[in-house]
Structures are given as structure tokens and as C-alpha cells.
Design a protein that fits this description.
One of its GO terms (biological process) is D-alanine transmembrane transport. Keywords: ATP-binding, Nucleotide-binding, Transport. GO terms for molecular function: ATP binding; ATP hydrolysis activity; L-isoleucine transmembrane transporter activity; L-phenylalanine transmembrane transporter activity; L-valine transmembrane transporter activity. This protein has ten helices and ten strands. By secondary structure, the chain is of the alpha/beta class. The relative contact order is 0.18. The protein has two domains: 2-79 and 170-249, Rossmann fold; 90-156, no CATH class. It has a six-stranded mixed sheet, with helices on both faces. A four-stranded antiparallel sheet has the order 2-1-4-5, with helices on one face. Strand 1 and strand 2 (16-27) form a beta hairpin. The chain has helices spanning 42-49, 72-77, 95-101, 111-116, 119-138, 154-167, 184-199, 211-217, 235-240, 242-249; strands at 2-13, 16-27, 31-35, 57-62, 65-66, 80-82, 172-176, 203-207, 220-225, 228-233.
């Protein structure tokens, strides 16, 4: 059963047509790659799904509910989390605090309880901290919990972004170029981590330029070029597709 369905999504910015009739789905248990040259509209797709942009036409549904037009915090509360192409951590906060922030959509504590430090609020804070630590442990950053985010090596900051997304307890996670700037060893570790994420029952939609990562981890690949879908299929089909070779992979 499809978790996420995009149906004829179009996005226009004035006279610029960023996406044209983009339609695909993400089925439970899948890792789907979204690839294409720079400017193809991949991050725009993410922004439509997560409520950053409103589509000019078409609709997106998640678990049978329309999400087109929802605000980002509402999309997150439905179980869709994301990372960003450019790292957007709270640089002056610790790794643990970054992940704790992700729990805001799951928190039930109110302002009065926080001020008075009620027993319920203390239990809530302990639960949030435990969830944050669990996400760090999962991404191999458990021993870096108390380090300031800006002091972490670049590869660890990339992993921390994924840990923060996981700390929000998502059912679906959108990864925007998670391997960008990683060396081959770090990319291989990332592939393994993404595989473990799917073992948790979390679906993954991933934008990525590293073809070794895409071909190695994705069940299915969607290809965009100038905002238009030009191909969709299994990795081996995409590798042989002449339109993809011409537009993206190179002759």
C-alpha cells in the first residue's frame, strides 16, 4: 500500500515552471531515489511534500490524507521528517539538544508545567532525552551527545541531521543529498545506516548525486529533468534508460 502519493504536482514561480505534472508514490518499506541534474526540481519536490512550498496544481496524499497546503509542523506531526541539502543544525547546541528539539511535535508538556517543573513535565523531559539519545546511538553518535554540533566533523554533522530527523519518530524520512561531501568510506557507512532505517519500518525518499549510493540502496528510482519526470523504475532499468543517460548519467 502506498504511503505517499504525488499526483500531477505542478509548481510555478512567476513565469518559471519548476515542476510539471510530477506523479509517483512511495510504498511502505521502500527506499526510493529521486535523481536528476542540478536544477531538475528535486528539492522542490521535497519542499512541496513538507509544506515549505504550495503546489500550483495537483495534490499530495499521505496515508490517504491530503497534505497539500499543510504547514511544515503539521506534516511533521503526521510522520514525515526531512534533512536538508545544506546542513541546518543548531550549531551552538549539543548533539543531544539538537535531537531533543525534534521531539517538539510529540511533546505534550505545556508552558505552566515547564515553569513549575511538575512531575509530569520532568517525566516528559526524561522521555524526550531518552528518545534523542536513542537516535544518536542508532546513527553511531552516542558518544558525541554532549559535543557542540559545530565542533563535530563534517561527516558526523551529516549523520546528526539524520539522527535529528529520526528523533521525531517519523514513518517516512526525506533525505536531501545525505552523502554530499562524504568520502567513499563514509558513504558506505551511510548506505548501511539507511538500510537499518528501513528495518525500523521507516520509508525513505532520497535525493542523491552519488550514483553508487543510489544504485546500492534504492528499490526504485525516479528521474527528473527540468521539472519533468523522464523515467521511473528499478536501478538496473534506470542505468540502461537512454533518456537518463543523455540527461544525467552522461553518454
Amino acid at each position: 500500500m502506498a504511503k505517499l502519493i504525488l499526483d500531477d504536482i505542478c509548481v510555478r514561480f512567476g513565469g518559471l515552471q519548476a515542476l510539471t505534472d510530477v506523479s509517483f508514490s512511495l510504498t511502505e518499506g521502500e527506499v526510493v531515489g529521486l535523481i536528476g541534474p542540478n536544477g531538475a526540481g528535486k528539492t522542490t519536490v521535497f519542499n512541496v511534500i513538507t509544506g515549505v512550498y504550495k503546489s500550483s496544481s495537483g495534490k499530495a496524499t499521505y496515508d490517504g490524507r491530503q497534505i497539500t497546503g499543510l504547514r511544515p509542523f503539521q506534516v511533521l506531526s503526521m510522520g514525515i521528517a526531512r534533512t536538508f541539502q545544506n546542513i541546518r543544525l543548531f550549531q551552538n547546541m549539543t548533539a543531544l539538544e539538537n535531537c531533543m528539539v525534534a521531539q517538539h511535535s510529540r511533546s505534550g508538556a505545556g508552558v505552566v508545567g515547564a515553569i513549575l517543573r511538575s512531575p509530569a513535565q520532568r517525566r516528559e523531559e526524561a522521555r524526550i532525552q531518552a528518545k534523542a539519545q536513542q537516535a544518536l546511538d542508532f546513527m553511531g553518535l552516542g558518544d558525541r551527545a554532549d559535543e557542540i554540533a559545530s565542533n563535530l566533523p563534517y561527516g558526523h554533522q551529516r549523520r546528526l541531521e539524520i539522527a535529528r530527523a529520526l528523533a521525531s519518530e517519523p514513518q517516512t524520512i526525506l533525505l536531501d543529498e545525505p552523502a554530499a561531501g562524504l568520502n567513499p568510506s563514509e558513504s558506505m557507512e551511510l548506505m548501511q545506516s539507511i538500510g537499518h532505517i528501513t528495518e525500523l519500518g521507516i520509508n525513505v525518499l532520497m535525493v542523491e548525486h552519488d550514483m553508487k549510493v543510489v544504485m546500492g540502496i534504492c528499490n526504485r528510482i525516479v528521474v527528473l529533468d527540468h521539472g519533468v519526470m523522464i523515467a521511473e523504475g528499478r536501478p538496473e532499468e534506470i542505468q540502461r534508460n537512454p533518456d537518463v543517460i543523455e540527461a544525467y548519467l552522461g553518454q
